[in-house]
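User: I'm designing a mutation panel for glycerophosphodiester phosphodiesterase and want to avoid disrupting the core. Could you give me a predicted structure to guide residue selection? Please restate the sequence first so the numbering is unambiguous.

Assistant: Good idea. Sequence first, for numbering, then the predicted structure tokens:
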Amino acid sequence: MWKPRAVSHALSLLLFWSVLAVASAQRSKTNAWKTLTGSPPVVIARGGFSGMFPDSSFAAYSVAGETSGNYIAWCDVQLTKDSAGICVSDIKLDNSTSIAQAFQNKSQTYKVNGTPVSGYFSVDYTLKDLASVVLQQGVYSRTTSFDGNLFPILTVDELVKETKPPALWLNIQHDAFYAQHNLSMRNFVLSVSKRVIVSYISSPEAGFLRSIASRFNPKTTKLVFRFMDKDDVDPSTNQTYGSYLKNITFIKTFASGILVPKDYIWPVDGNLYLLPHTTLVADAHKAGLEVYASKFVSDVPFAFNYSYDPLAEYLQYIDNGDFSVDGVLTDFPITPAEAVGCFALLGANPKKTINTTVISRCGASGDYPGCTNKAYEKAISDGADVIDCPVQMSKDGTPFCLSSADLIESTTVAQTSFASLVKSIPEIKSGSGIFSFSLTWDEIQTLTPTISSPFSNFKLFRNPKYDKSNINLLSLSDFLDLAKNKTSLSGVMIIIENAAYLAEKQDLSVTDAVIKTLSKAGYDKAGVPKVMIRSTSSSVLTKFKERTNYECVYEVDELVGDAVVSAVKDIKSFADSVVLKKQSVYPTDSLLFLTVSTNIVTTLHHANLSVYARTFTNEFVSQAWDFFSDATVEINTFVQEGLVDGVITDFPKTADRYRRNKCLTLGDKMPVYMLPVQIGGLLQGVTKDYLPPASAPLPPLKESDVTEPPLPSASPSPTPSASPSGNSSEANPPKNAQVKVTVCFSLSTLAVLVACLLLWV
């Protein structure tokens, strides 16, 4: 059984980290903030770090403190039969606790704000009754791996005593309901405020706040009126929340702030695209009311404008140039903490603070069909250092950019007259496809590109309303011309796969075609972006090493944990750098937690080989649990702890913004939310009965994995012409016939502390 009272001594460790974060927040205070007071926005952790741990559990509050610094602990107060105030996320205890198992068939039906609701309610149980009930993860898409710790329900007093949050926010959601059961939220709030410091009290019932307003000093306790959906009715006044918007000054008579769903401020249309922001923040600030925004989560789809990047959403609300909300209510407090402390108020073009290389994957393929002119143009404007072209060959020998030789993966070819060209080529991929070398370049240009949605099985789709006008596939010649005059680019990466098959079976020499096109475009001369040739084939890179001075990049398509000396020596003979899968740096188990750090990056660095990791995406399902559904946390760990030299990403904007944040220059004063995660730390907090079987360690890369016979010869390819751009899309860079491995996930720097806390009994 989890006993929070046994861990109070361990909290001294948490306080150390909290002090660092508080200092960082204080350094951030500036008159540039457009909040009501000019202070930085506050981070309110709803039920603690409820995006990861059971809502309102000891672990959730503790991890919020150790990852997010000067956070505010939010407690949804429910009252028991004997008037104890407990922290549980909803008036019904069913989803978030084990009460249905502890008290089987005891469900009740009560009216809540006039609507019959069935379930288990705290009003039917004493605090002693609930001692046998434990908290559990109530959002089924989130990990349940920590439920085995049997977290008890906390009272408000226990929350403060055991986790010592920097500030406490009590949310009184159902005063009218509890009054019907002869329980007084007013009496509870007045009583508890004599024992602990309550910094904020919120309620959607104006009558409740008005009844306590005279009893609290606004300098000590802020009263906040909570808005529900606009058509919902405040049971204390019978007014809709939409009607309150027309009389915002009335709220100032009993509250110092308002808490509103984020779409009150920045609404979205029916297709999840942002509409213009409202005047609510400006109106409330003019009336002297602070504005707090709610409903921030990182693990559900939000407006497509943010490209699945939760940090971008927070920055929109706190650093948009027009206004800043005064605080955000979130299930994932680490992300707004880093937004406030590291990324806001940097100006229009902040300088890079680290030199990590950002390499696109098919351009900005998270926002546009990959390998199209718009994907590349956006990658460049989003800050990519290197843009990539996975080279495919047309039937008439034109090299062009597309993620896969199978046109079905990235174009509408299957809906055209070319559908009859479907065939199976096991040397290239399993299953059937319509391959680029079955169509001429002119025919390929008639195809319509499609945007990739690699996580569509999770109902996560990328930018469905992207601008489809004037979007074209690019020949390699077009691609090189596009990149040649972009001064922000340091290089281009040319990716070559299937060279042996193309030469032997299709009589097409992709290597010769690439070399000729690069030479014709002037890339063998000074003053142009550097050229990086990337391949999983050592024979391809050997050929380029013999004939050119381009940087050769060897892609290790297997999952490996290290490399033997002979393999590294072999790689050094034909390559200057290496691309690894993310899981080769940080493997995950079947629960999607990080397990260990491997030695592969260190081994390659000792041989003076640069290392790039792939593929980073913004979608939360692509990240280990340890990264808190935050792409920035993941990149930060790979750069600071994994020491990779660059990242390959579908979303160059996220990676470029990361290396410009001000916290990276703080050294040993870096705040907790910008420290790398502790590898394997959270896994230690999973109880034995929830652990999967131990995974075998990743094998080392051997010389036999690297060595290949020379490429077969093909008839000389004609020098490709720079024909006009056409249309297409993307999927994933071709693999060297290795088995596909599913992307996995993990958690935070201070997770070792979490694990220690979870192991206390």
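For picking mutation sites, this is relevant: The first helix runs from residue 11 to 28. The chain has 25 helices and 28 strands.
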